[in-house]
Specification:
The structure holds 2 protein chains of 2 kinds.
Chain A: H1 7-34, H2 48-100, H3 106-127, E1 130-131, E2 134-135, E3 147-152, E4 158-163, E5 170-175, E6 178-183, H4 186-190, E7 191-192, E8 195-196, H5 197-209, H6 215-272, H7 276-298
Antiparallel strand pairs in A: 1-2, 3-4, 5-6, 7-8
Chain B: H1 3-26, E1 36-44, E2 51-61, H2 65-94, H3 102-116, H4 123-184, H5 190-206, E3 209-213, E4 219-223, E5 227-230, E6 233-234, E7 237-241, E8 247-251, H6 264-299, E9 310-312, E10 336-344, E11 350-357, H7 364-374, E12 379-383, E13 389-393, E14 397-400, H8 422-426, E15 432-433, E16 441-442, H9 444-448, H10 465-473, H11 484-524, H12 528-563
Helix pairs in contact in B: 1-12, 2-4, 2-5, 2-6, 2-11, 3-4, 3-10, 3-11, 4-5, 4-6, 6-10, 6-11
The chains are: A mainly alpha, B alpha+beta.
């Protein structure tokens, strides 16, 4: 401490200290009010990159949670349609068994064939299912109806079903560089080689209707159709199983992404969030110090020789 | 009788002492004032045998030259740190604060792109992607504009500072003249020196200065880079720009730049010539890489509306007859191939045509001719009057650069149909237009028709394969091994660290200056209590002189009464 202290020195010290304490007071006050202690890089240069990364990850994981949710919706719709197709094939199998297992009148066979006509339509409806106006068995060509009647028999019934969609599956990003197939190509679900659901139903229907068959020939043809139905069901089950497995994987991933998002959120909050208790204590401390400084400043230079000169 | 002489000398000395005290008290709060004190000496007869009273020998002006030199240096350091701190804070502000930063914009765009992979055929989500792109572009634009404005402001402020320096230098020279005149005539010019030193103090906030004492109280004011004031002469300085846009300060009559190392002027020049270009360059680097890479993906994909009938470049060359490598294109290209898929719209047949591109040898005209020749005229390449490439499909044909397999199939798909980087370099069919932070914007064609957003490489509405390529850009190392957001974070952190360092420096300078000021004040400052004590002393002196004169007078009267 210098021996001589001028008025200007005292004033400068007082102003500098009041400004410093005022600035600290404002800093902690802002931290408490905003709840944030890091708003810009200069607030904490060392941790700012981590903060940006953590905040970006929070939003990115939210995006992936959303794409997973969309993918789940698509896959669920696909599995529902495939279950519908599976039920259609179960009924076709029952019809084939009925036809193959006993002598039937032509009228009875016609009744079964008529039901098969409706099963073909039911399968067409399942194959051409849409979600949000988009076909989900057209692969990537989601605006194109996947199946159409390409040829009819003399009575105008569907004889050949053609696939017009894309052969590539549509897929959705569910993580960095990680995708899940959502919209399958209808050809690989409904028309696999040796497992064409439409042709199986049409052949079964035609076998039931064929008046030229003897009972033995019909039984033989219907037994062959039963094998076709079985093969088609196996092919369909394989696709359904794959989609169901994707759904199960998505469920697991959704939980993991949720956990990762929470971890990033906690990390971001730890870096940028104000420790309210600490800030409040600091604020109290600085307030007391500021009050003391103000009290001292108000008494600055008060005792003077002037007070005693008569 | 010497009593009257002694008494009147005492009265005069006391009055002078009161004057000096009065001056000190009056200027106790005047910045730069140096306290004075009166020095008495006893007066004697010529032979020195008898005392004749008291004389005012001199008036002392209290000074502390070493501390003053340190204060001048501290002022300059603080001025430099203060200006750079403010400039860097403004740069940091221009980058935005979370969640409004450019990095948030980049991440937001990629989030929307990733979101679109689940609904690539949804026009509303496509619009959201384009909206995110526009939002990001406007963040770049406003950051670029803010930084440019800051640079302009610094230019203006540097001119003002140089003008103030010239003004101060002129005033200091005038004071030198007046002080030399006064002190040359045997007078003391304490108050003139105070005023001059106050000007030197102000000057030291702007440039680094040191003073050299000259005869008769004058001082030369020198800087590291030049002489500012020499005796009665003041140099003048001017600020101007050199071809690279940097600001330089020159002395009148010279073109050689003067290098000031500290002070607010040096801070303004450093901020203008180093801090801002560094920040702007990194910001532009991010924008340019984003434009180049997003455009490379967009131009080699397909929108839901499929192949094109025409495509125009948005980047021009200076001379279409000279090799492209000499045209200083903002986004560079290299030797490679461009594969053009030409589709016969009537038959659906598709052919892939490879055009070899070498910017070292081919001009824009050459490239246009090569495209026309390679496609057999099915795609006509021309260079318009603005020196931009235009591609036009012949009637009945369309073209694209998605690298699909031919129809009928053969050869398979092509992973990168534009290994030369011709399309992004010439600004053809891109997601963004522009070349830097100020000019980046989403292609107006895309904003008009979101179906042009190349989500796929097949043209099918549900195909998101090209969106996966877009999304992959997010984590790719693009600048110095860092991703877009990583580079932004590094850039902001660099500025943030600089701010933090400068704040520490400024606090340190303020502390040092505070102590130096207190040290100087302990010698040169006015302590009013001390002055009041001296005031009482001189009051007593005047009272005693009056009493003494009265007694002398009475005594003389008594002597005179003898002869009356």
């Amino acid at each position: 401490m210098n021996l001589r202290v001028s008025g200007q020195t005292q004033t400068n010290y007082a102003i500098a200290n009041l400004q410093r304490q005022g600035s600290l007071f404002a800093k902690y006050q802002d931290q408490v009010i905003s709840g944030l202690k890091v708003k810009v890089a200069s607030d904490d240069p060392a941790n700012y990159p981590s903060l940006l990364r953590a905040k970006n990850e929070v939003l990115r994981f939210s995006t992936f949670a959303q794409t997973m949710s969309d993918a789940t919706t698509d896959l669920n719709a696909g599995v529902d349609a495939m279950l519908e197709a599976q039920q259609t094939m179960v009924r076709a199998r029952q019809i084939a068994s009925e036809g193959a297992n006993g002598p039937m009148e032509q009228a009875g066979l016609e009744t079964l064939a008529v039901e098969l006509d409706s099963l073909v339509n039911r399968l067409m409806t399942a194959g051409n299912s849409q979600i949000d106006g988009k076909y989900f068995f057209s692969g990537t060509a989601s605006d194109t109806p996947p199946f159409r009647v390409a040829a009819t028999d003399v009575s105008g019934r569907p004889a050949t079903i053609a696939y017009d969609g894309s052969n590539d599956r549509a897929r959705v990003l569910i993580g960095p560089g990680q995708t899940v197939d959502t919209k399958y190509a209808g050809s690989e679900v409904f028309q696999q080689p040796g497992g064409d659901l439409f042709q199986t139903l049409i052949r079964l229907r035609d076998n039931l209707r064929n008046p030229a068959f003897t009972q033995a020939e019909r039984s033989q043809a219907l037994n062959a159709s039963l094998t076709d139905v079985q093969n088609s069901q196996d092919a369909l089950s394989s696709a359904t199983g794959e989609q169901s497995a994707n759904l199960a994987t998505l469920d697991v991933l959704k939980n993991r992404v949720g956990d990762l998002r929470l971890t990033s959120l906690i990390r971001a909050t730890e870096i940028e969030g104000t420790d309210i208790a600490e800030a409040a204590v600091r604020l109290q401390e600085i307030q007391a110090s500021l009050q003391a400084s103000l009290a001292v400043t108000s008494r600055l230079l008060q005792p003077s020789l002037l007070d005693f000169i008569g | 009788m010497t009593g009257y002489t002694i008494g009147t000398s005492m009265l005069a000395a006391g009055r002078r002492g009161l004057d000096v005290i009065g001056q000190n008290i009056a200027n106790a709060s005047t910045p730069g004032y140096h306290r004075q004190s009166v020095n008495f000496t006893s007066r004697a007869t010529v032979n020195g045998v008898f005392g004749m009273g008291v004389d005012v020998a001199s008036i002392t002006r209290y000074e502390m030259p070493p501390v003053r030199t340190a204060i001048l240096r501290g002022n300059a350091d603080q001025g430099w740190a203060g200006v750079r701190l403010q400039a860097n804070k403004q740069i940091e502000t221009s980058f935005g604060s979370s969640p409004g930063t450019i990095a948030d914009g980049i991440e937001g765009l990629f989030n929307q792109i990733e979101q679109l992979t689940s609904r690539p055929d949804n026009t509303a989500v496509r619009r959201t992607v384009l909206g995110s792109g526009s939002n990001l572009a406007s963040r770049f634009n406003s950051a670029g504009t803010d930084i440019d404005r800051l640079k302009y402001d610094l230019n203006t402020r540097a001119s003002q500072t140089v003008s103030e320096i010239n003004d101060f230098a002129k005033q200091i020279a005038v004071f030198n003249t007046r002080i030399a005149l006064a002190e040359g005539s045997g007078n003391q010019a304490s108050d003139l020196k105070d005023q001059r030193d106050q000007l030197i103090d102000k000057l030291s906030e702007r440039i680094d200065v040191r003073t050299v004492e000259q005869p008769f109280g004058a001082v030369n004011v020198l800087s590291n880079g030049a002489a500012i004031v020499v005796g009665e002469y003041a140099n003048t300085f001017a600020v101007g720009s050199v071809p690279n846009g940097n600001l330089v300060v020159t002395q009148a009559g010279s073109t050689q730049p003067v290098q000031f190392t500290t002070g607010s002027l040096a801070g303004q020049l450093d901020a203008h010539n180093k801090d801002i270009p560094a920040a702007r360059s990194r910001l532009d680097g991010i924008a340019r890489q984003l434009i180049a890479r997003m455009n490379a993906v967009q131009s080699t994909g397909l929108g839901t509306s499929g192949p094109l009938t025409s495509l125009n470049a948005t980047t021009s060359v200076v001379d279409p007859t000279q090799p492209l490598a000499t045209q200083n294109l903002p986004i560079a290209m290299q030797a490679g191939n461009l594969v053009i898929s030409v589709t016969d719209t009537a038959t659906g047949l598709r052919n892939n045509v490879t055009v070899a591109i070498d910017p070292a040898t081919q001009s824009l005209n050459d490239v246009a001719a090569a495209i026309t020749a390679a496609t057999g005229g099915q795609v006509q390449g021309t260079v318009n009057s603005s020196n931009m490439l235009q591609l036009q499909a012949q009637a009945g044909y369309k073209f694209d650069f998605a690298g699909r397999d031919t129809n009928p199939p053969g050869g398979g798909t092509i992973a990168n149909p534009d290994t030369a980087g011709l399309l992004p370099s010439l600004g053809m069919g891109g997601f963004f237009m522009g070349t830097d932070a100020s000019s980046i914007r989403v292609s107006p064609d895309l904003l008009r028709n979101p179906d042009l957003l190349a989500a796929s490489r097949s043209g099918f509405s549900g195909d998101a394969s090209n969106l996966e390529r877009f999304a992959a850009l997010r984590d790719q190392p693009v600048i110095a091994g860092l991703s877009f957001s990583g580079e932004f974070a590094d850039m902001v952190t660099t500025v943030g660290s600089e701010i933090s360092n400068l704040m520490d420096q400024q606090a340190a300078h303020a502390g040092v200056l505070g102590n130096l000021f207190a040290q100087e004040q302990s010698v040169t400052g006015v302590d009013v209590n001390e002055e009041l004590v001296r005031l009482l002393e001189f009051q007593r002196m005047v009272e005693a002189a009056s009493k003494y004169l009265s007694v002398v007078n009475t005594a003389l009267d008594s002597v005179l009464d003898i002869i009356r």
